């Protein structure tokens, strides 16, 4: 996710005002973070949106390791102590959701959800196991859904951006993978600066 967020920042930075704070909104399942734990057979969505903030100039996005720390820290904040505070005052969520919306409207936010640990390819509802699985909500712009592939040897990223940004993100991802970038930001280029 950090790599996708970095590529998103590199592409989006030309469209937004300078000096903004980048944010990734990560959907976090809070079932295993609750005390007492939710019953195994409980049904419904029990989730919160973790907001990972990455301060960085528009000229150069934060590096991938810094983004990884931001993402990990945001998810780790979603613990039982935080949930107790939220239960005492729903105003906390209202304020946080308002801040997230403001960033998203300015173009500084990328949403993310992960289906990586769901047994999606093993599910059989009577007509056989699925050949492919996708995220829902393709109408949500600036959003990424991560899904394990059928062999579980890799992760698919279903990215929803406008067409021009998708093309540019593809270039940045290709450059990262092949290390043939011309100043677009691979680790070798950064280490030589």
What report would you give on this structure?
It holds the Pfam family Transferase. Belongs to the plant acyltransferase family. Keywords: Acyltransferase, Transferase. The protein has 193 residues and is an alpha/beta fold. The chain has a domain at 20-110: Chloramphenicol Acetyltransferase (2-Layer Sandwich), CATH 3.30.559.10. Helix content is 37%, strand content 19%. It is built from six helices and five strands, in the order H-E-E-H-H-H-E-E-E-H-H. It has helices at 2-12, 64-77, 80-88, 91-106, 163-178, 187-191; strands at residues 21-29, 47-55, 109-114, 143-148, 155-160. The protein has a five-stranded mixed beta sheet. The two termini are 25 Å apart.
Overall structural class, as computed from helix and strand content, comes to alpha/beta
The gyration radius over C-alpha positions equals 18 Å
What separation lies between the terminal Cα atoms? 25 Å
* CATH homologous superfamily designation of the domain at 20-110: Chloramphenicol acetyltransferase-like domain
Order of helices and strands: HEEHHHEEEHH
Proportion of residues in β-strands? 15-25%
Overall pLDDT confidence: 79
Q: Which range best describes the helical content: under 10%, 10-25%, 25-40%, 40-55%, 55-70% or over 70%?
A: 25-40%
CATH architecture designation of the domain at 20-110: 2-Layer Sandwich
* Largest beta-sheet details: 5 strands, mixed
Q: Identify low-pLDDT runs.
A: 180-193
How many helices does DSSP assign? 6
Give the overall shape, derived from the CA principal axes.
Answer: globular
Q: Enter the CATH topology name of the domain at 20-110.
A: Chloramphenicol Acetyltransferase
- CATH domain class name of the domain at 20-110: Alpha Beta
């Amino acid at each position: 996710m950090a790599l996708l967020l970095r590529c998103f920042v590199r592409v989006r930075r030309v469209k937004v005002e300078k000096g903004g704070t980048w944010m990734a909104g990560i959907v976090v399942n809070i079932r295993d973070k609750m005390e007492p734990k939710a019953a195994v057979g409980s049904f419904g969505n029990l989730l919160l949106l973790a907001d990972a903030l990455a301060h960085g100039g528009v000229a150069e996005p934060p590096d991938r390791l810094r983004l990884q720390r931001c993402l990990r820290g945001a998810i780790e904040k979603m613990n039982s102590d935080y949930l107790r505070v939220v239960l005492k005052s729903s105003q906390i969520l209202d304020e946080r959701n308002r801040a997230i919306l403001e960033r998203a409207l300015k173009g500084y936010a990328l949403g993310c959800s992960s289906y990586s640990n769901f047994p999606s390819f093993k599910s059989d509802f009577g007509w056989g196991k699925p050949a492919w699985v996708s995220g829902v909500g393709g109408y949500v712009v600036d959003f990424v859904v991560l899904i394990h592939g059928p062999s579980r040897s890799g992760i698919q990223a279903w990215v929803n951006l406008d067409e021009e940004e998708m093309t540019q993100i593809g270039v940045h991802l290709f450059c990262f993978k092949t290390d043939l970038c011309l100043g677009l930001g691979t680790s070798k280029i950064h280490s030589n600066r």
